[in-house]
Amino acid sequence: MSEPATPDAASPEEGDDEGRTDRAEQPEQTDEEAAAAREDAATRAPGSGANAVVAALEAAGVETAFGVQGGAIMPVYDALSESSVHHITMAHEQGAVHAADAYGIVRGDPGVCLATSGPGATNLVTGIADASMDSDAMLALTGQVPSDMVGSDAFQETDTVGVTAPITKHNYFASDSDEVGRTVGEAFALANTGRPGPTLVDLPKDVSFGETDRPVGEPTAPERAVPDDEADEEQVEAAARAIETAERPLCLFGGGVIKGDATEQARAFAREFGIPVVTTMPGIGSFPEDDDLCLSWAGMHGTGYANMAITHTDCLIAVGTRFDDRLTGGVDTFAPEAEVVHVDIDPAEISKNVHADYPVVGDAGTVLDQLDAAIGYGDAPDTEAWREQCAEWREEYPMDYAIDPDEPVKPQFVVEAFDAATGDDAYVTTGVGQHQMWAAQYWTYREPRTFVSSHGLGTMGYGLPAAVGARVAADDDREVISFEGDGSFLMTIQELSVAVRENLDITVVVLNNEYIGMVRQWQDAFFEGNHMASQYDWMPEFDTLAEAFGAKGFRIDEYDDVEAVVEEALAYDGPSVVDAHIDPEENVYPMVASGAANGQFALAEDQL
Amino acid sequence: MTGEDEHAATDGGTDHPADSPIAEHARPAGGDAPETGLAGPTPEERPHPSGRRDEHGVRKEPDDGGEPTRRATVSALVEDEPGVLARAAGLFRRRQFNIESLTVGPTTVEGHSRITLVVEETEAGIDQAKKQLAKLTPVIAVGELSDDAVAAELVLLKVRGEEPDKVHAITSMYDGETLDAGPRTITVQITGDENLIDDAIDAFDQFGIIEIARTGQTALERGDSPTTPGEEPGHSAGSTDDDEFTNYDD
Ligand SMILES: Cc1ncc(C[n+]2csc(CCOP(=O)(O)OP(=O)(O)O)c2C)c(N)n1
């Protein structure tokens, strides 16, 4: 456990200091040293199963892991104490798994979390399911009761492999000390191979204790799991012809563009051919939102102009998206005019939800380069009129809000104020609810991996632990802001203790409406305003609570508070919590009702 | 609260200079942001294309009916690790594929098993079932069997033993075997394709069927074609290097 570093060790003035505050005691390694350390871990005789597990992590280059101790995982932790892997003890296993998830998102490498058997493992389940829905690379290591007790309903026994089978890319029950290191290496590599996803290795205590001198080797995914990056030339040619002849082509960039590190190719492709871009929510940051070509994100709470473009495009070039229902609305009315080009690394996504007229299976960046090359010189579609149409929609459906200085603060204003005060490369994490949508709508994202959120599963409580993971993963000079709802924040608030202990410079902004706001909005729209279980009669003072944790607390009650609080909260070097009391009645628009047509988005409640 | 009054009040105030972020959004913002919600043409005022997609997201003519289903036999070569059948079964349950039967058994290659399943699905559903199955890590290869593949299943039938001669006659008619004959019950085994088994069960019904155990269908591709295409044929431990003795269970 690292000592909390002195608060001014990484003050903004010394912003380009190397090394993280919380790991200041660890000297920076050169690339050669790091490679040598990995090699050593892969080739040395580990001694025990637990040491092999840790050696496998080291051989994979893992720098940080998040977890909570406990009986069945204790041998692994004991081995971890001798390791170069920095362990961050979280307050709750859900915190550990979300932190690992966000760490992985920011780093582009699998995040690692550990938990003991039974409740430790089941506490990971939400976060594993979350990672699975969002195709986040992650490795979970769980302790298990000794092999000879498995199946006997022993103390803290859960069938972890059974419970997590449907929510992992693959999971493993380790049964042999000689093999366990290789298994952990394989699970790590598999998590980040092809379409990423979470993997899990269940580690019975006797396997961890067992002796082994077999080196763990380099982490390698099963050969079968390694897909071809390059797409079939015929598929590419067919898609290229469709794009060339389109009149209203539209790029739809999903999370796969970011996970596949294909943002450069995506940007180059859209710009070269002048094709307007919409993203999915997980695709936010794949294309700069302030670029003229970018119409921001589409779907349930996406912009009106993005949804208009999707509704009227005649050629949808979808890259790395799984056509989630929050994006498509009703499939029957989704992009009804469009031939669909679908680029994905996972063939099972092709035509799963929306039929692909032109399937192209391969790595996003590689395929975009292939498409680029296949579109003949001078054959690019003429998109000028279409771009003008998109620009008109942008004018017609502005993402704007009116404020009255004497009324409660609008949440959008708070989001914009933090955006204006931070760099383009700041990280934003969120909980789930209205605040998440405002953070997605009113922050202008320009860089990949900067919007870290729970998309497919919609897990309240994601924001704070994700901020912890993002902070540990990120360079010192990049800000980490977590937008929370009052409800979401209360679900994992205990992780503030970790942020304080590790002196993590994060700013939590609670958009406090004293409602389970998103539920209240739906109740107003679809349940005659019956606010069953969506209104809190009492809420703690989050700024005071933050102080009790040892963090810094701020409060916003009116517009005139905003500027100073933003400045002070960002300047504070350590965790701070801004309790922003916002207009409790504010709603999120536009909104496409579940199953409705994207083009039918409502701009106000009476349009639903 | 009327926008006009507030607007006037804001304009008159000195607290917020015209270029401050607050003034920028002061009502009426961007021209005419409404008090709640956003500005812009209402859904009725927007153009809507008339095209539609079916439930698989395929664009269709307005009056297209639903897609027909068909029955497909799918074979998967898998690593014989614990839980592989549970994974396959769990996958089909979770994704709501219509599975008629699922069988598993060893192959000539140690450590490899073959799962055979029969699905009743639309074309798109069959395609999804195959792709999802192929995605499971222990699955080596997946193939759909052609119409002329050889397929068979086995049924054990326990019937009342009052008319042993007649039972014997029907058993012979279906090329079956009598496995157990006692004073009160006779147990026979019938193998064949699904239709034959269905017929046989109907035929034995006259005696009174006490119990049935049915395996579900298993199948192989005919002749030289591998059952799970895409896999290179390999050699089992006992075979020679002669290509004629290749097997496809690797
Ligand atoms: C773990 C979990 N439980 C319940 C929900 C259902 N849900 C979605 S949004 C929401 C309200 C969130 O309230 P709050 O965090 O205060 O955010 P707000 O919508 O007010 O911004 C709820 C309960 C969920 N998404 N996740």
Give your account of this protein's structure:
The complex is a heterodimer of chains A (608) and B (250). Chain A is built from 23 helices and 20 strands. Chain A is of the alpha/beta class and 608 residues long. In chain A, the strands form 4 sheets. A 6-stranded parallel β-sheet of chain A has the order 3-2-4-5-7-6, with helices on both faces. A 6-stranded parallel β-sheet of chain A has the order 11-10-9-12-13-14, with helices on both faces. In chain A, strand 15, helix 17 and strand 16 (451-452) form a beta-alpha-beta unit. Chain A starts with 30 loop residues before the first helix and ends in a 27-residue tail after the last strand. By secondary structure, chain B is of the alpha+beta class. Chain B is 24% helix and 29% strand. Chain B starts with a helix and ends in a 30-residue tail after the last strand. At the A-B interface, helix 12 and helix 16 of A face helix 1, helix 2, strand 1, helix 3 and helix 4 of B. Bound molecules: thiamine diphosphate. The site of thiamine diphosphate (TPP) has 19 residues of chain A, from helix 17, helix 19 and helix 21. Chain A: Its EC number is 2.2.1.6. Chain A: Residues 236-371 form the Thiamine pyrophosphate enzyme central domain.
